[in-house]
Amino acid sequence: MSSRSSHVPRIAYLVKWVERSLRLRLDEVLAPCEISTPDYTALSVLRERDGLSSAQLARRVCVTPQAMNQIVIGLERRGLIRRRSGTHGRMMSASLTVKGMELLALGDRATLPVEERMLSGLSRAEIGVLRRALSSCVASLRERGVRGEETGTILGRARRRKEGAAAARLVD
Predict the structure, then answer these.
(1) What is the 3-state secondary structure (H, E, C) of 130-145?
(2) Both 158 and 128 in a single domain?
(3) Range 163-168, long-range pairs (CB < 8 A, 24+ positions)
(4) Is the domain of 103 the same as that of 152?
């Protein structure tokens, strides 16, 4: 038996596999609703935080500002959100429309069984522990980057992308 087979998988590796598997399942169940997973996520975020800018949405949905701009344009064209001038220069804030809320409710019903399946092997107490642990991990990673740099800086984001690409090559 090789020593390699006795290694416990790294948490980061397991989180990536959960994220990837979850994304595939969400894409499948949201397709009949004619909405993508990033679209659904953006609508969900707007339900909780009305009036966000495209840049704020991008950070919360974990996509680039350029990708979010395309998502916002598409959602607005479909009448799922409306944008209005904000208080800061050219910033536009986004809000759900009635049509957007209806589609979001449809997406919620479609995605619920996926989440239930993912959590089916856990007790209610374990689900609570998992939620708190993951929330803590998110908060820790938002506070500072890997080397202590502020996560919002351009240099910090570029460094994380480069390090993330290198880590991905190691996993493959």
Answers:
(1) HHHHHHHHHHHHHHCC
(2) yes
(3) 167/12
(4) no
